[in-house]
Amino acid sequence: xxxxxxxxxxISEAKLRQLYATMLQCRxxxxxxxxxxxxxxxxxSASLGQEAIAxxxxxxxxxxxxxxxxxxxxxxxxxKGIALKHLLSHLYAGEPDIGKGRILLxxxxxxxxxxxxxxxxxxxxxxxxxxxxxxxxxxxxxGIKEWQAALKFAARRSLPLVLVVQNNPWMLSHANNGRLxxxxxxGIDGLTSITVDGNDVVAVYRVAYESLDRVRRxxxxxxxxxxxxxxxxxxxxxxxxxxxxxxxxxxSAKKLFTGHWKNQLIQRFSRELDDAIQTLDLQTTRYLRxxxxxxxx
Length: 297
Hints:
Blueprint: H1 13-37, H2 51-58, E1 66-68, H3 75-80, H4 84-93, E2 103-104, H5 112-127, E3 133-138, H6 139-142, H7 145-156, E4 161-167, E5 192-197, H8 201-216, E6 222-227, H9 243-253, H10 259-278, H11 282-296
Parallel strand pairs: 1-2, 1-3, 3-4, 4-6, 5-6
Helix pairs in contact: 1-2, 1-9, 1-10, 2-8, 5-7
């Protein structure tokens, strides 16, 4: 789903529509996963409400760029262009087909994904072709000393890396002794740090656009703190804090949004989702039916 350059700070009407359509696809895929497994912790349990962050940061990446996914939040793979059949295979049968198209799977540890990202960035810098790495992480990882060490290493080596930290300050953390997460303070020499409203895909896209350009030109790594809102363990309510509602109102003000267009997008993606399910092999289809039966009980 990589899009064309806007050529500057102005965002074209086509790009604005693409941003919304991509977010909507991410939401539909996440809701499909949640219906399948329920709202307990699963592969997509951290994706709901994060659509603006994944879309804004990934939509303009090149095919040769690398994305490192965050734990339980794989929607950036959809934005990067991974086929639905691979995402569904991973969702239903746990097959590692998602690891295609320069997508690195989240590691089991909270900081190991950053090590994967720095290793990939080292390779990109040595090849010197302007390719970069975009790595996603939650706030829980940022307090770990190994994570900080990897970030300092990236800054010292001026690696082509954009690290996106998804900070939900409204979510309580067991690792944080039940306290709300404070704003992230990097304070690392050689590291550019930017904070953005993670519910506003236009703001995220502008920050990402400038950051990607800076990193490609050898300006060193960039840390984007995307402050978002996702109620812990609850469904999103239709409020301005929902990134899709926020973008619908933004597009409506520009006369670029209608309910009919949204329904067309939903119907089109639903057909693609159904077609992708039909392409799964017999073993995966059996797993799907069994999982749906459990979910419906």
